[in-house]
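Because showing beats explaining, we think one record worth quoting, sequence and backbone structure tokens together, and here it is:
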Amino acid sequence: MINRIARFLNRSLLKAILDLEFIDLENAPREGALIVAGNHLGALDGLVVYYVVDRRDYIVLVAEYHSQYTLRRLLVKIAGAIFVDRYHADFAVLREVLKRLNEGGVLIISPEGTRSRTGGLLPGQPGTAYLAAKTGVPVLPVSIVGSEDRLILANLKRFKRTPVKITVGEVIAFQPVSRQDREETLQGYTDEIMCQIAALLPLEYHGAYADHPRLKEILNE
């Protein structure tokens, strides 16, 4: 019941303030464990991706600074979300995420780790690739354009909805990582995820991956 209410409220909120356009939405699997990886431009990105993959078995990660607010702590508890420290390794959180993925959950995550202030992609962190390789769960790349906080706030002041475009890529699967070349392999996996996201974005959003040879290969395929 709580999940249904949360999904209803999420859809109602987004429809009220955003004019959403979905491209290739049929690429999003409707069952099975999944890691949804997207670029991060604004505060609503997680809710937008939550809208894309309309499932009940979400794994929601919430930045640790929200835990200092009583109401937010309560909402996180009700939603079954997990507080995560973005700056220090938290093995208890890692174990919980791995457990839920192995049970068929859907993890929504930004490999960049934080929102981009310029709109361009930031270098990806290896955590998403690690989870995918560790569990064998496929990664679904998703791009978001137009969700910058400044754009949404400016339009809200004029009682206008903000156009936001979401493009869904094709799932990618990764092989387990051996200890011998772990860092190199994870970096390669991370670059693949980020370049697949970049390929779904306009040129001006490519950021740190604008000149990456893998992105050029994908765009030429």
